[in-house]
Amino acid sequence: METNALKIASDASLNPGQDLDGLRAQGVAKLQKLAPDTWSDHNVFDPGITLLEVLAYVLSDLSYKLNYSVEDLITVEPGESLAPTQFLNSEQVMFSHCVTLADYRRLFLDIPEIKNITISVRDERSTGATVFDVIALASPDSQISEDSLREIIHSTFAASRCVTHQLGHIEFYKSVPVHLGMHLVLKNAQDLVQVMTDILSKVALEISPNLTRYSAQELLGKGMYVEDIYVGPSLHNGFILDEDLDSTPVKKHLYSSDILDALRVHPNIEQIEEFRFIIEQGAQPGYEYWQVEVQELDPNSVNLAPELGFLSEQFFDAISLVIEGQSYVLDEDEIALIKLAISERIAEQTLELQEQAEQAPLAFLPLSQYRSLQHELPNVYALTEQSLNRDIDSEQKAQLLQFKGYLHLFDQILADQHKQLDVLPHILALPQYTHFERLGQIMDRMLSSEALSQGLLDEFWHRVKALPHTQLSQAVTGISGVNHLVKLALEAYQQQGLQQQLESDFSVAQLTRLNDSIAHLLARFAIKLPNANLLKYREVFGFYINVVGACHNDPSEHEDLLLRLVLLRQYIDKCRLLNEIGSLGENRCRGFDYLSKEPKTAHMASLSRLVMRSLGFSHHGQMPLATHNRESLYLLESDLLGNDSTGNLFCVLPNWTTRLQNTAFRVLVESQIDKLRPLHLSAQCVWLTREQMSLFERLYFGWLNFYGQAQRERFAEGQAHIANVAADIGGLLETLLVSEPDTMIENIINYVLAKPQGMEVLEAYLVQILSEYASEPLPNEIEIDEQSYTQVRSAVTQIINEHSALYPEGFSEDQVLYLATQLCIDHICTPNAFAQSSSTRFTVGYSPLPFLKPILPVSFSQINSNTAVVSKFIVATSVPNRIDPEGNEE
């Protein structure tokens, strides 16, 4: 007898939460422990045991609902406003930026007008730069010019490139026809046009193959894993496998063996008696029977791409056919039909992409509905008597109401536990923008040390009260006497139960659980934000406690407001990161799009956005920074600036904002940048004062405009001068970044002095500034013709000392040189600056960034006070007549 025979269990195992006998036994055991002497009768007739059995039944009902599938539990009610996005799909979170040559090749092949492409990395030994040269083969049915296709390739690269990667030459393959000599013996060739179309199409695709594209469903059907499908950049026209990329380069040699292998298995070919390549010149005798070098087909051209020359008039002259032992010559009509059919066949996709079927929505189940346990007790208990809604005018009613009050405690707990099922669809979903984004913008103002108007304060309290709850309550309905049992307005209780008693608005408990739920969702992507103590939010929000707390709108005023503000900011940071997780992941190391015509807003790379999002920076991409206290950074790529260094990233940050002037927070910033940077690149943080930042970012903004226009017009004639100016300014920027920040003014002035007529330009600005701040015209004409920064500084100091009576107190050479440097930057970023060739004319139109200018003797600074525009920003300073060198504002 087989001892291990498969048996059917005589009793089905129950979920512990649905085992009524087990739940009853647990309850009785608890009673025996709590009241061993006073409650000894546990038989089924005891009223207490009856109540225990009813509780066990209601608990089993709740357990039954919790045992539904996840799909049922997270299905929301139809018509619900702002339906949650519960799970990000693979297309949203698994793609990445371009890393390998194969990634870039996929990126370009996704352009419909490109059939094939070759990418090579140029050997830039002098600079070490990563430059990609491209040779594209246009699709046969492409209707656009090479110039237009070149612009498409360039814009596609600029929008998707990895930091430090550059695009080199863009060239195009020239199609060269391949002619063949074949003698074929055919069989079963009733439809000769169809047979020859099929044969020659196979030959054409062997010579110039199409890349096979797949849908995700097809690849899953092939047994591929999701993580192996969604790799590289996001594509719009199907997935391309690595093996297909490797097997379909633009061919430089053609081998007869490859073509013969494809034809031998053709069902209509009985025998191939002759096969050869027809070459007019250059080939060695006999080689035409087994191989041909594509370059030999047109020795006077370069970048040749072979294609079957079936459209030429002479092509079919070298093809002879034998059908059933008889020679057969194709007539003109048959040839015309074959040519047309081959063209259509080649243009078709090898496999049509299958559209993914949409899954039908699941039916909504009202799982949170709760029926009071009082309905389950025997009628003899009289718990459903409606007379209890009226006055309690007898001892019997009072006793019954007392019993109902005891039961209502269990009722309310069970009703709230059922209501928690309504939280599931939202607690596992992406947070709604309406819940956090506007609050985030208000708190961004706090991080920027900006004032909060009464309107913003009122809006803040209105929105924190609307934050989603993590614990829900609902009223117990369908029973009498509730108006006597609940010490709340009956209408309020019926609307939201005991919500404020369970979890009050803007409470520590609510904010803590909200943070925990979002942290759980982020953990699915292996993301954990820095500890709140390291983020230094308390130091910032501490300045706003009195203002925010004075509104008397706090629903949890007994709790620590500063702690709640910190928890709220952490929740907002997590929500923002989670909602951007797809784009941040896909573009993790993507550089900025230098082709954008709006560099003031498009200068930010995705890598810098990821860094700032993880640290809770207030204003991503803010430009300018010097005229604000807003948190942001500039990410510069050394490969784009010049030739002195490559593979370096420069992160330029302000050192005067509340958090960024904290040494510990700076250490955290630098560690996050080092953690998130690409491993093959180095990163250097440059911390600048307000004045240094003003000089740097105005020069950087000028470079962005020149470099952007140079790239947009790089393929046009006569635009090399723009690229030269961009490279010149980029070299100066790189010098500033690798030097000590305190030498910034010196480096810029020395740069100007080294240019033709540089001394004349600098002298004009110095004289202008010295004359402008003098209380009356200077007695003597000023001349400054020194040739170094040190000499210029000494000359300015001497002039101020000689005419000290004409200048306000505190006026110094530092202010003069700072303002002169600002004016020099405007000159540097002016087309045809420093006596460029008069034959070169170009325009780079943009408005320079504003900068701080000291006004003396009044103790404040103003933006561009010498312009006709009314100033909108005034910064008081701590040192009379001087912009504070530490960047502090008072």
Automatic annotation (TrEMBL):
Protein name, per record: Uncharacterized protein
Superkingdom of this protein's organism: Bacteria
